[in-house]
Amino acid sequence: MSTTFSPPAAHHADLDERIELILNEVIARNPAEVEFHQAAREVLDCLGPVIAKHPEFADHKIIQRICEPERQIIFRVPWTDDRGEVHINRGMRVEFSSALGPYKGGLRFHPSVNLGIVKFLGFEQIFKNALTGMPIGGGKGGADFDPKGRSDGEIMRFCQSFMTELYRHLGEYTDVPAGDIGVGGREIGYLFGQYKRITNRYESGVITGKGLDWGGALVRTEATGYGAVYFLNEMLRRRGEGIEGRTAIVSGSGNVAIYAIEKLHALGAKVVACSDSSGYVHDPAGIDLELLQQVKEIERARISQYAERRRDARFVAGASVWEVPCDLAVPSATQNELHESDAVALVKNGCVAVAEGANMPTTPAAIRVFADAGVAFGPGKAANAGGVATSALEMQQNASRDSWTFEHTEARLAEIMRNIHQLCDETAEEFGAPGDLVKGANIAGFQRVAHAMVALGLV
Ligand code: GLU
């Protein structure tokens, strides 16, 4: 293949070295963005055989282009608290890739948010969204705002100020945000309301995760947690095993964790522990979902409150939830929450499968421990893709002014998760790494985006 704007592809032997050079350049160009480096390394590590098979990807510098966001927006978010005091936060939106569709990905409000975190999330989102097979590009945004302890009025004023800047970059064909940590139904409502007011457009498809009365879709709330459990089920089925009768741990206690627990229980597992940033609860009788929702979603309280109201449950402050023995693990809290020592403990306790409900919750060293021990491992960009896939179904319903039943939508979600698992599994096999779903997901996701980028030319 000839090209006028780059040197010919390297010989096979030089490939990994060339990819290493690209990664080093990415790291040098984006100093201090350690989570972004981690996410980029994981994907680039898998790409040697892809470039060998498709030298046109190297000719077109697809890897270098994919690692550079199409657009990065950083802005000031001023707001006043209930006492009238002024606060300033930093908002951002990284529009990473629109090769497959409008930028799509959530907004995270958490004090830890910085550009490196938003870029790691946006980068993951490109490949996750590609794996769904739906027409959505990748993006992510958020703010270093801490919603903890804030009143409804404060949350609303923050969301309105945030959207007053961001709205000009959004649109149903341009960039479509949704929720993530710290952004749920309430925040999506305030954000959409402000967008509607400023633009004077009832543009339902501009944001997903909406309430059912104003353009939202059934199953979106449950989708990430349900999807992760469907994916886990597929991994187990592939090994001739199942979920029923197993003991499970789901870390976290937010939206993903709650619906992962619900689906695990529905499929006959018993979830005995979950957590928040203060510690974990161990409930040998199985987590009482209603009580957990009361504590976390309605009262927005600490998880110790759960143990206080539940006989035989205990709260363990400041410790790792992964010390509790289990067969199945669904890390659903946040990035880098499951460390090498946790993985060693899980393996020792007989854990057979791990599906990531959160984005990049397992550290690279912990992933190696699972791989060496033969534990089935489903990476987040595949296992938690059910959330964004259902966002795409919400967009589809908004575009057609239709609303689907719960059953229909859930069946679509289940089918999408099965397809993602199959695609990752077959791709891993094709590239000589049977059972390695990390490789399968990275390669399959990358290939979809790369083919589209080649087709669309140098843009
Ligand atoms: N924040 C979710 C994710 O990590 C959902 C994004 C969306 O629905 O756009 O995939």
Key attributes of the depicted protein:
459 residues; five-stranded mixed beta sheet; 12 strands; 47% helix; globular; binds glutamic acid
What does this entry look like structurally?
The protein is an alpha/beta fold and 459 residues long. Among the domains are: 71-202, Leucine Dehydrogenase, chain A, domain 1 (Rossmann fold, 3-Layer(aba) Sandwich); 223-378, Rossmann fold, CATH 3.40.50.720. The chain is built from 18 helices and twelve strands. The protein has helices at 15-29, 34-44, 48-53, 55-59, 62-66, 115-131, 152-166, 185-199, 220-238, 255-266, 289-298, 304-308, 340-348, 364-373, 380-383, 386-399, 406-430, 437-456; strands at residues 71-80, 86-97, 103-109, 138-143, 175-178, 247-250, 270-276, 279-282, 314-317, 328-330, 353-355, 376-378. The strands form two sheets. It has a seven-stranded mixed sheet with strand order 9-8-7-6-10-11-12, with helices on both faces. It is globular and about 60 Å long. The two termini are 19 Å apart. The model is unreliable at 1-11 (pLDDT under 50). The structure holds glutamic acid. The site of glutamic acid has 10 residues, from strand 3 and helix 16.
